[in-house]
Amino acid sequence: MKAAAVGGILLAAALAGGGYWAGQRGVAPGATAVQAEGQPAATAAAGPILFYRDPDDRPVYSAAPRATADGKPFAAVREGEDVGFDPSTGETVAAKPAAAPAVSSKPSGDRILYYRNPMGLPDTSPTPKKDSMGMDYIPVREGGDEGGAVTVGQGKRQRSGVRTERLGRRTLSAPLRASGSIQLDERRVSVVSVRSQSFVQKVEQVTTGEPVRKGQVLMQVYSPEVSAAAAQFLSVVGQPSGAGRAVVDGARRRLENLDVPAAVIDAIAASGKVPATIAWPAPRDGLILSRNAVDGMQAMPGDEMFRLADVSVVWALLDVAERDLAKVAAGQPVTVRPRGAGQSITGRVTLIYPGVNRETRTARVRVELPNPDRALLPDMYVEADIATGAGGPVLAAPDSAVLDSGDRQVVLVETGDGRFEPRPVKLGVRSEGFVEITAGLAEGETVVVGANFLIDAESNLKAALSGLTPPDPSTTSETRK
């Protein structure tokens, strides 16, 4: 009994193999094959065998004849009986043999549009070719179905929770987090010094950290060289025009070269007297950063007596990681949050310093900030968000719409009548659950944002099944030539 069963299995496998080779040669296997016990009679078909599928309708397929573990031969699927997707349920089914087309001089779908990758990759060719494994590219004919596109019925769409959304434009702000410190604006720092040997007669009641106004007297200074130049200036003041006027201008220029303030020179000319000391004023509004002047001290030329800084505008120097430098550009808005201040302050990127720190692999970015109430102090620690997104609205899709495999990003696009096709895209900035689409989609198209993995799985299955289709004989021969 066991021997008879084994013989029946071998006979079925042999008959299935004979059907495969007969189908490849255009011979109807039903005309010569002997009907196996318990199997339905084979129906004649003129088309060649495309592949073999499991007799129990399990998702198992084969390019060559084979049998199941219990001896059942795989069912042959011929041209016109290829698998499809039931629009009402979305399930994979074997399509019924197509009705014979009307007789015509040239079929409408005979023209080949292009050739696509047999493994379903986004690679096409206008001429026949082979992939890296030697498989022939599959021709896509006019009016034919492109690989990967699937149709999902309304019933399965509702059960699976498929959701779609129409693409539009929106402004994406992708903040880049960075930290740094507050520093003085180098252009708003001044040093008070003398240009000749001098003696500090008296220092006014100003100390380090106090604010001063431009023109406010800081100290009284006596300088023998300044007094001699002032006496010479008075001796020539009032000279008539011509050569005498040039002498007056020269005497005044000597006082200016000694850094005597213009207001003091005018006072000397008006009073006609050489003052014993010169009232030295502050050159700008600001805070006194340092005071080195002391009553009775001797000051040599170039000695720093006071250092002042205007703090109405300060800098935030931020450290940005080397990998993020390409996202930062001058003019981008920046929100700075100092730890010692009660509110955030908005500024703009003014400079990216030309250099990277070798130890930290960061570059320094300068942000100019208004500081009218002097809340920002030098060396204060700050955190900042740099708005690195596009300045205007861009085409954006929800993050959930993108199927990202690492080296390839795909979006499923609804083309109408429950039909979906995968579309490779290029991405840009990500922000607040959306991602910029730089290529591959157009405004107004509808994309899948929910349950897209299910549709993608069916698309990959269909592309794989299409890859089992034997290439066109004429195309194959031309390719090999």
Helix and strand layout, with pairings?
Elements: H1 2-24, E1 49-53, E2 61-62, E3 75-78, E4 83-85, E5 92-94, E6 112-116, E7 124-125, E8 138-141, E9 150-151, H2 154-160, E10 163-166, E11 168-170, E12 175-184, E13 189-193, E14 198-203, E15 211-212, E16 217-222, H3 224-236, H4 243-257, H5 262-271, E17 278-281, E18 286-291, E19 298-299, E20 304-309, E21 313-321, E22 333-338, E23 345-356, E24 362-370, E25 381-387, E26 394-398, E27 402-404, E28 409-416, E29 419-424, E30 426-431, E31 434-439, E32 446-450, H6 452-466, H7 473-480
Antiparallel strand pairs: 1-2, 1-3, 4-5, 6-7, 6-8, 9-29, 10-32, 11-26, 12-21, 12-25, 13-20, 14-16, 14-19, 15-18, 16-17, 18-20, 21-24, 22-23, 22-25, 23-24, 26-31, 27-28, 28-29, 28-32, 30-31
Helix pairs in contact: 3-4
